[in-house]
Amino acid sequence: MADTERQYDIVVWGATGVAGRLVAEYLTEQYDSDVVALAIAGRNEERLDSLATDLTAGTEWDDVPILLGDATDPESLRAMAERTAVVCTTVGPYTAYGTPLVEACIDAGTDYCDLTGEVNWIRETVDRFHDAAVEAETRIVHSCGFDSVPADIGTALVQSFAREEFGAPCETVRIYVEDGSGGVSGGTLASFGELFEAAADDPAVRRALANPYSLAPPGEREGVDPGEQRRPRKDSLRGGWTAPSPMAPVNERVVRRSNALLHYPWGREFRCSEVIPTGRGLRGAATAGAVAGGLGLFSAAMAVGPLRSGIQEYVFPDPGEGPTSEETEQGYFTVRVLGRRTADDDPFTVEAEFGADWGPGYGATARMLGEAGMCLLEDDTDSPLSGGVLTPASAIGTPLADRLRAVGFTAIVSEATGAGSE
Ligand SMILES: NC(=O)c1ccc[n+]([C@@H]2O[C@H](COP(=O)([O-])OP(=O)(O)OC[C@H]3O[C@@H](n4cnc5c(N)ncnc54)[C@H](OP(=O)(O)O)[C@@H]3O)[C@@H](O)[C@H]2O)c1
After folding, report:
1. Pocket of ligand 1, candidates 11, 12, 13, 18: which has the most ligand atoms within 8 Å of its Cβ, to mutate?
2. How far apart are CA 94 and CA 99, in angstroms?
3. How remote is the CA of residue 91 from the centroid of ligand 1, in Å?
4. Of the candidates 273, 280, 282, 287, which has an alpha carbon nearest to the alpha carbon of residue 240?
5. pLDDT computed for residue 61 by the predictor
6. What is the pLDDT of residue 422?
7. Could you tell me the distance, in angstroms and rounded to a whole number, from the CA of residue 98 to the centre of ligand 1?
8. Residue minimizing CA distance to atom 29 of ligand 1
9. What is the pTM of this model?
10. How far is the CA of 117 from the centre of ligand 1 (A)?
């Protein structure tokens, strides 16, 4: 449980970056200073001062304290972790900068949440820190943004509805990234590039990316799922065509880790996949082919060192650059999660819709991370786990959906009728 005797309740680490600033803005707009003792932290005092001034202008906040540190200076991270109950961190790429903060938070008993989608780095923290975090009763919660809250919490919503209404979980869950708009930042693309770099340099990273169960606990890294979809495919659950989703490699593994950490409430034979639906008929097939082909070409180019460097230098924006505030506020997304159970005489299908009228990677992600931090602070979870390297569903669960619904997200679940028809 978060230590609320600390000087601060939540520190936003990386507050001068694109995502960190939005998290700090969200928390100061949504909560009063007597509800949450907030501080912002980073390595650049001048930029933090300027942000603190912006955060207090036109709000009831008189002051937002700043803390200085550097990701390469473990002592500064330890000092920060000891002063707060929860850290929300947006300092990425996490493969490059994330590990010392995880260590500092476990040593200080400080709950932690981040925005990483870097599977290789999550795997590293699982292997190096899970047992220590369990022992310290400290929650290290990865992937609390668009990667992987809609997929992971959407699945938790479907499965808790199935178990409550039908007395059994769905054996198959499919996550459909239906639509979205909202821009992408240099920081996110730098993290994406870091993943390809690590895969090119390190065979262990390639092995971790190849195994669909690579984020499961050691000894449990195999199962029935074959891995993410790579080609256009006709959809067996609701008909129409689907294309591979670029976020499937992280989201699917996070959902499988949730099931494993919670001791398989969704069954050992549980299958999950994430796809982009592209519609029916010839047009749907052609769109699925184009998306799959484009993604394949992009991945192939990113796997080649000189091409990767060229794309990073000339195509991607620099870290620190991001979508305009108009793009983050005017964006939107919808993720639909279908769960199906056929094992019994009465098959059923459950459907969750998870979405928001903010850009998925920034406006919505900032709210997801901010609310994940609030859940840890207030122990607003349905989780039996008090520590470990965790996922949103295993650390927090459906209370995160309740909080996001209360601040404007769509997070609804019901029995689906007519699913599976072509
Ligand atoms: N899961 C999702 O859906 C999602 C969505 C958005 C972002 N993300 C991830 O979140 C991370 C941040 O994204 P972003 O767009 O906000 O990137 P960004 O604008 O480049 O921000 C990075 C932050 O890290 C700080 N930083 C870099 N090196 C540091 C160091 N040595 N010590 C202390 N601070 C350091 C930067 O500080 P300065 O300002 O001083 O340079 C900045 O505050 C990325 O890994 C991205 O992939 C994930």
Report:
1. 18
2. 7
3. 4
4. 280
5. 94
6. 34
7. 10
8. 71
9. 0.95
10. 12
Pairing of the two strands 66-68 and 38-42: parallel
Cα torsion 191, 123, 89, 21 to 10°: value is 30
Q: What tokens were used for 328?
A: 């983050």
**350 with 172: CB under 8 angstroms?**
no
Strand partners, 234: 241
User: Which ligand 1 atom sits closest to the C-alpha of 361?
Assistant: 5
Helix (H), strand (E), coil (C) string for 128-148? HHHHHHHHCCCEEECCCECCE
Residue 165 Cα, ligand 1 centroid: separation in angstroms? 42
What pLDDT is attached to residue 200?
80
163-174: burial string, b at 16+ Cβ within 10 Å, e else: eeebebbbbbbb
Q: Which of 184, 111, 99 is nearest to 147 (CA)?
A: 184
Close Cβ partners of 362 (under 8 Å, ≥ 6 residues apart):
18, 19, 22, 182, 183, 185, 322, 323, 327, 328, 331
Tell which residue, 22, 323, 319, has the closest CA to residue 187.
Answer: 319
Regions of the chain with pLDDT less than 70:
1-4, 183-187, 314-317, 324-326, 418-422
Alpha helix stretches (DSSP H) within 83-233? 94-97, 99-108, 119-135, 149-166, 186-201, 203-210
C-alpha count within 13 angstroms, C-beta hemisphere, residue 169: 18
Ligand 1 pocket test: pick from 22, 72, 90 the residue with the most ligand atoms within 8 Å of its Cβ.
Answer: 90
Residue from 115, 189, 324 whose mutation best tests the ligand 1 pocket (most atoms within 8 A of CB): 115
Please calculate the CA angle 237-240-243 and round it to the nearest 5 degrees: 95
